[in-house]
Amino acid sequence: MRRGHRPSQSPSNRPRFWGRHAVIAALANPNRTVKRLWGTREAVAALDLPPVLPVTYADVADLGRLVPHDAPHQGLVIEVDPLPEIWLGDLLDQGRDDRRPLIVLDQVTDPHNVGAVLRSAAAFDALGIVTQDRHAPPESGALARAASGTLEQVPWVRVVNLARSLEEVAEAGFWRVGLTGHAKATLGDVIGDARIAIVLGAEGEGMRQNTEAHCDELAKLPISPRVESLNISNAAAIALYAIATRG
């Protein structure tokens, strides 16, 4: 296999996660099935492992061959099954009695961005994130690493039709706010007191027109004109902070 092109999945197409945060969070998640662990003796000794989990001791160089080139595995690699599917209706039912925000991503395909959004969602106690099934990254080592353990904590719903799902979100009582640079109002102008679903599009392309049409309001962040736009994960974090601190 060529240098720099090692897969983060096994031949069985199970994802491989690496690094202490991602591995420890996966092991602690009762909904996650961990199939196998590789690690240095020192790193494995620090873990509380179930007795039935197959463990292979390996040196740093051997672990490096299990993950993409230069991936910071910190002496730990695991092979896992993807998390069980979550239905949007079930997630919305769980949040009917609180005001936690929801994050909806329209064709955001970069695993690092989705992982960072998951981390911000966990930091601000969001209800969960919603993505399209076909236009979102699968669970992977890179995504889990960017999420720093929060892939195991934040519900992630994958839907077939985003527009139809946004209608369901509205029926559940959410005010759907799409973030876009061409909006006239700022986020602070439109969030009010309602339960908020923040909708963000892919970096560069933004939200599709049909997605914008299924938002109740479009809003922008009040950033300097010297900067054209923010990374989607930064925009999500700022929006979640604004919602958490509204009067």
Task: Give short descriptive properties of this protein.
Alpha/beta knot; 32% helix; disordered N terminus; alpha/beta; 4-stranded mixed β-sheet; 10 helices; single chain; elongated; 247 residues
| Arithmetic mean pLDDT | 91
Please identify the top-level CATH class of the largest domain: Alpha Beta
| Straight-line N-to-C gap | 56 Å
- β-sheet strand percentage: 15-25%
In sequence order, what are the helices and strands, one letter per element?
Answer: EHEHEHEHEHEHEHEHEHEH
* Number of helices in the DSSP assignment: 10
Structural class: alpha/beta
Shape: elongated
Q: Can you offer a commentary on this structure?
A:
With 247 residues, the chain is an alpha/beta fold. It contains 10 helices and 10 strands. It has helices spanning 20-28, 41-45, 60-64, 88-94, 111-123, 141-147, 162-171, 187-190, 209-213, 232-244; strands at 16-18, 34-39, 55-57, 76-80, 102-106, 128-132, 156-159, 174-179, 195-201, 217-219. The strands form 2 sheets. It has a 6-stranded parallel β-sheet, with helices on both faces. β5, α5 (111-123) and β6 form a beta-alpha-beta unit. α5 packs parallel to α6 (141-147) and α5 packs parallel to α10 (232-244). Residues 1-7 have low confidence and may be disordered.
What is the strand and helix layout of this fold?
Layout: E1 16-18, H1 20-28, E2 34-39, H2 41-45, E3 55-57, H3 60-64, E4 76-80, H4 88-94, E5 102-106, H5 111-123, E6 128-132, H6 141-147, E7 156-159, H7 162-171, E8 174-179, H8 187-190, E9 195-201, H9 209-213, E10 217-219, H10 232-244
Parallel strand pairs: 2-3, 5-6, 5-9, 6-7, 8-9, 8-10
Antiparallel strand pairs: 1-4, 2-4
